[in-house]
């Protein structure tokens, strides 16, 4: 996987965990990944 894809997946998994009691079950990670935009600063 690309660095960008890995970063998106990591952010999505962390966000999913933050929304739940306990750890994520990864059921919403793909949906969250689609909402994450990575932008490179100059």
TrEMBL record:
This protein's record includes keyword Transferase: yes
Q: Which UniProt keywords apply?
A: Kinase, Transferase
Q: The organism sits in which domain of life?
A: Bacteria
User: What GO molecular functions are on record for this protein?
Assistant: kinase activity
Instruction: Please identify the protein, giving its name as recorded.
Output: 1-phosphofructokinase
Say which species the protein is native to: Staphylococcus haemolyticus
Q: Taxonomically, what lineage is the organism?
A: Bacteria, Bacillati, Bacillota, Bacilli, Bacillales
